[in-house]
Structures are given as structure tokens and as C-alpha cells.
Amino acid sequence: MKFSRLILANLFRKKVRLILTIGSFAVALVLFTFLAVVKSAFSRGTEIAGADRLIVVSRIGLMQLMPISHRDKILAIPGVKAVTHNHWFGGVYQDEKNFFPQFVIDPENQRQVMTELVVPDEQWNNFLTDRQGAIAGARTAARFHWKIGDRIPIKTTLYGGGSSEFNLDGIYHSDRPGGDESQFWLQWKYFDENAPAVVKSTAGWYVVKLDSPEDAVRVAKAIDEKFANSSFETKTETESAFAAYFVKQFGNIELLILTIGSVVFFTLLLVTGNTMAISVRERTSELAVLKAIGFSGRAVLFFVLAESVVIALVGGFLGLTLAYLAIPVIGVALTGLLPPLILSKSLLTLGLGFALFVGAASGLLPGIGAMRMRVVNALRRA
Amino acid sequence: MAIPLVYNVRSVKARWTSTIVAVVGIAGTVGVFVAMLSLARGFKATLVSSGSADNALITRAGATSEMTSGVSLDSVKIIQDAPGIARGADGPLLTPEAVLMAPIPLLSTGTDANVELRGVAPNVFAIRSNVKIIEGRMFRPGLSELIVGKNAKATYSGLTLGSTIGLGSVRWQVVGIFDAGGSAFDSEVWGDAHLLNGAYKRPDTFSQSVTVHLASPAALQQLRDTLTADPRLNVDVTREIDYYAKQSTRMTQLITILGGFVALIMAIGAVFGALNTMYSAVAERGREIATMRALGFNSWNVVLSFLFEALLISFVGGLVGCLAVLPLNGLTTSTMNFQTFSNLAFAFKITFDLLWMGVLFAMVMGVLGGMPPAIRAASRPVATALREL
Question: N or C: which end of chain A has fewer CB within 10 A?
Fold first, then answer.
């Protein structure tokens, strides 16, 4: 482009200011990406939930157990493909700080229902034959440097008490990006043998796999109707509604993050807008000369806009690169507190688009001022 | 001889647009910083104030929270006679409690949230002396009546005085509202422990925890030694205040890490903003600075003068940021506590030292943002600066 040299020369006129403005952009984008990533981590459960799965819990509360006999009754409902049941184990590995969810699973049906959580066949077969076997999510295994074959001591208080050791027979991965790789699975049979009488032959919740997602509402209703007026009534929801139930309880925290985000962007717009205004003001006479020698008002607007957009692009790119490097580090500090922080491609694109928008917006006002300015007045002022 | 401060104050006023931008940048940063810290503090304060130094909480050995604990009726009988427990008119001051969770719709969204239900002994107010009935009356033992914490009443639908609500297999009547002084109990619903166990088909031979009133705060050690040495028992004895402090760690940690990182990034941004403002201030005033130097002010004076200007801007920014978030003080919000899975209402707690920290933080940003431009202003040779005009 024939004016690129002029634009470049103008850009580098004040190097310190250029660096600082690019820096402001970069900082704002790091923040934008960070907040967006945290927000998505809070609501991850809803985003990755399987559309063809239902969760059945006790109507009277999350911690209430249901008889294991519900399983066959649910399976008999048309539209249900498979059913598995889980228990919350709630044990402690070494220290309370090392929190990760421990589920007692039903090995017969786990893989038919949780299809996206993949365990190699050989590891899975070892787990099946090992009463004290366990399978850990890749993230939890990496966090504590566990290898297959390790013995994992878990102190438990919820059912019976005492400490148990489990053999790590396998490690599962999620084949969906952002899937939960932090769970720790134990054998239901072993758990049931050792459970106190009130916990024997029960399930904490059921996970139902449907033949087709369109059936969700009908099957959920059929399940709840089946157990209505029994002593163990149920509440059936889609997996995403169930996850949303937890997310909504964070409600205000999420609102807070969004508020901060807006404050930051408002500030950023102000800072860059001001910088652009200053740099145009300083160059009033030069722009007037450009117009005097025959450049149209629109060309002058283009020069100013091009400058601010280039600053925004460079700053935005820098910020996204920094965020890309920093977010995994912060993610490590938040292990056990939040689901993994994931920086998606669409988020990066959104960030860059955002930078462009702010750049153009901040250049527009001074640019229009320069376009409209009267050459005579401007030259006289200088 | 120092440059008069009036000079800087007037310069700040003369370039008010860039001043406002710098002030807003710093105010935003300080606001976020103070708000985040006050949130973390409020959360912690709510849980810590739930505990009392005069009380001890007895749980199953190794239990991480009341939810995962259990103490049998036989054990309660042994605990009753232990030394160190205060005694009232009708026996030892202790309340074996059932802790349950019930989904109740939130007033704000209409969706269910987990409410902590606590089955207590009738003499619970003698043990938790910070909890008082402010409306209605205490439930009568043996009747399906509930008393509701004031935050729970304001957060969930159907918990006002006189209303009835179905929990478990029983319909309950709300007969009283209690005030627990802003502690976690304010988000709870209390009823008769035996009836709650019945309504949720739980064996009545178990409690989740036992809270006892100590004869004196120092009696804890004696009680702990006795109970942990007893071979018939398998329990942990924790001072109530320590138990609740521990319950707050994960959420406080989360807010502090998130808030700290956000404030750090914003601080870098605000320093950039301040640098930009001060550099343009220096650039625009090249002539003035050179004139002052020519008049005999030395470079040290010029540095101090510009530093003062930066500090003035940042101080105002810090003050504005603090004032902007001050209305948050006392504002109640709620979130789910990771450690109990139940919803907990808590208030932002902005204390004087937080505001002080906020202003100090602003001043540090002012120094970082003002120092390099000030040095540049002072180091330009007088002759060159004057000739440029």
C-alpha cells in the first residue's frame, strides 16, 4: 500500500507512547481472556453435558440415597438405552486440600453411559477383576504424579469410616475438549460389601442414557411418575439442567466477574481514546498540510484510523499470546478449586475482534475531527 | 528551594481530560482490588463468626465437615458426662445435631438451591448465645415446626413467618425467624432433630455432630483429652471457631487467587495509563520545565515536583475507587460453599484497613507511573529544551 510508510512513520513518532498504548491493549486483552476463561470454567458442566443423558436424584435432597432396585425399573422404561448408578465417596487423599471428586461406579454400565470418558480396554479389564481397583482421571493422576499400579490410600468418613487403599488400574481421558478428567472411580461391589446397613444396596444418583435426545422430557417424566407416591420419589433432569443447578448457585460470583470485565473495558476505551486524541491534537498542523496539498478529508480519517487499528492489532495479538502463556500457570494455582481453565480458539478470535473494535472506535472520534477540520484554522493555530 | 506545589495542582487542572483518564484507570483498579478483598473477607467473617470460642464441635474422627461426620447416640451419652462441659438448669449444655440439605427455590431466580437444614436440641440457644429469635417464637419440641435464619428468609421463597413448607415427608410450619449476627447460621433452617431425621427416613440413633458449650474457653483441652482417650469413642474435638474458619478456606482461596490476579493485571494497565499521562504532561511542558531549570531550580526539584503530581493523581484515583465501592459494604450476596455444597449468604465487608490498603496501592501505582517521566523531565538539557521552541 502506498501510504504504509507514512502510517509507520507516524506510529513510531513517539516510541514510548506507542509502547505504552500497545501495552494497555495487551493488558486489557489478558484480562478479557482470563475473565472469559474463568466464567466458562464456572459453567463448564452445562456446556459439556451430554444432551442424551438424564440424572436421577432423590426428590427430597441431593444427599439422600435411593434403593438399587430403581435401576431395573428405570431400564424398563421405553427410550432408555442404559442406566448406571453412582455414589459420592467423599474421602480424603493425604490432606483435605487435595480435593478431587470420588465416585463409586457401577462397572457393568459405566462405559455404556459415560461414553466420552475413555479407558483403554486392557486397563479396564484389570479394573473389572480387581475389587480394590480404581481408575483416575488424567488430570488428577498428573496432579499427584500417580502411575498405573500405585496404591492410593483414601481416608473416608462418610460410610463406615477408616482408611482404604486402592490400586490404580487405569487412567481415563475425556474425548470431549474441556471434559472432566478429575474424577476417581471405585468399585461399587467392594463399596457395598463394606458399607453400613443403611447404605447397603443403595445408589446416590442414577445416570440414564437415552436412545435419542428428543425423548428427554418424556422419559424424565416417565421416571418421576414411576416412583411418585413411593417412599423414594425421584427428581429427573437432563444432565445440563442438573449442572446448571450448581452453576446458578454461584450466581453472584459470575455477575461480579462480568461487572469487573465491563469496568475494565470502559477504562481501556477511555485510555486509548485519550491517547489517540492527544496524538492527533499534536499533529494538527501536519494533517492540515496534508489536506492543503490535496488529500481528501476521508484520506486523513483513514490515516488516523489505520494508526489506531494497527496499535490495537499489535496490542491485541501480544495480549492474547501472553494470556495463552499465563492461563495454564494460573490454572495450576487453581487446581482443585475450579475446573480446568481452557482457552478456546473461538475465544481468541473474539478477543482479537474485540481489540479491533476498540481500536477503530478509539480512532474514530479524533479521526472525524481531523476530517472535518478547516485547513485555514488549523494552519493558523500552528 | 522547592517548586511550589500550586504549580502542579494548576497543571493537573489545566490538562483535566488526561487527568480524568488516569484517575479513572487507577480508581477502577483500586475498586476491583478492594471489592475482591472485601468479598473474601466477608465470606470468611461469615463462617468464622458462626463459631464461638466457648463452644466445641465434636465430629467423627477424620471428618472434613459435618456432612461427612456421624456420632452415635451411645457416644452422645458418653460425651454428656465428660468434664469441661458447662451445665445449665436441666443438665449439660450440648446439642446433638442432624445436618441435612433440602432444595428450596430461590426468590431471585425461582430455581432450587441447597439449604442447610439443622436439627437441633431444644436448648440450642443456651449453647449458641449469639443466635436470637427476632420474630415469632422457638419451635416446640415434638411438633413439626421450623425456625428460619434471617438470610434464608430473604433468599428463599416460602420461608416467611406462618407459612408451611414440605421438607422430606412432612409439612412444616415456620413459627420463628432468628438472627445469628451475620454468621452462616443465618442461611440455615432449624427444627427438632428427631423429627427431621424421621422426615428424611434417617436412623434417629445418629447425629452428624455434637456441639457443646464449654465451662470456659480453656476447658477445651481437658474435654479433648478425655474424649480422645476414651476407647469407646472415635471422635475429633474442635473449637467451633476453628472448624468454621477451616470451612471457609477453599472459597476464600479461590476469591483471593482470582481477585489477586485480576488486580495485578489491572495494576499493570493502570501504571501504563499513568505513565502515558505523565509522559505527555512532561512532553507538553518541555518549555516550562526548561524555564524553571533556567530560573535555578535544580533537577532534583523537578523530579519531586512531577512525582508530587503523579501522587496527587493516584491519591485522588485511589480515593475515588474506594468511595465507589464503599456502598458495597454490608451488601449481602450468596454463593455455594464448596465444602458443604450448601448455599451461604454473606456480606461484603469493607473495613478501614482495606480502604487504607487501597489508597496505598494507588500511591504505589502513582510512584511507578510517575517516576520515569519525572526523571526524563529533569534530565533534559536546559539549552536543548529551550531551543526546541
Answer: N
Q: Which of A38, A256, A330 to mutate to test the interface with B (most CBs of B within 10 A)?
A: A256
Contact B64 A38 (CB under 8 A): no
CA distances from A265 to A24, A201, A372 (A): 11, 55, 28
**Among residues B233, B262, B286, which one ends one of the domains?**
B233
Tell me if B35 is assigned to some domain: yes
Look up the ipTM and state it: 0.71
Stretch among A310-319, B65-74, B227-236 having the lowest mean pLDDT: B65-74
Number of domains in chain B: 2
Kindly tell me if the per-residue pLDDT of B339 is higher than 70. Answer: no
CB distance A263–B28 less than 8 Å? yes
Integer Cα distance of A38 and A338 in angstroms: 8
Decide if B162 touches A, using CB distance below 8 A.
Answer: no
**Tell me, what's the pLDDT at A360?**
87
Q: Which three cell numbers stand for residue B143?
A: 411438633
Query: Is residue B254 included in any domain, yes or no?
Result: yes
Three-state DSSP class for residue B124: helix
Among the partner residues A61, A157, A231, nearest to B62 by beta-carbon distance:
A157
User: How many residues are given for chain A?
Assistant: 382
Q: Which residue of A35, A245, A278, A330 is the best one to mutate when testing the B interface, meaning the one whose CB has the most B CBs within 10 A? A: A278
Q: Is pLDDT at B196 greater than 80 in this prediction?
A: yes
Concatenating the DSSP letter of every residue in A349-361 gives HHHHHHHHHHHHH
| B 281-340 residues inside an 8 A Cβ radius of A | 283, 333-336, 338
The residue out of B182, B209, B233 marking a domain boundary is B233
| CB pairs A-B closer than 8 Å | 151
Chain centroid offset of residue A66 CA:
32
Length of chain B: 389
Asked whether residue B97 is domain-assigned, the answer is yes
Q: Nearest CA to A26 among A278, A342, A327, A311?
A: A311
- The model's pTM is 0.74
Look up the domain containing B321 and give its range. 5-48+249-387
If you average pLDDT over residues A183-199, what whole number do you get? 85
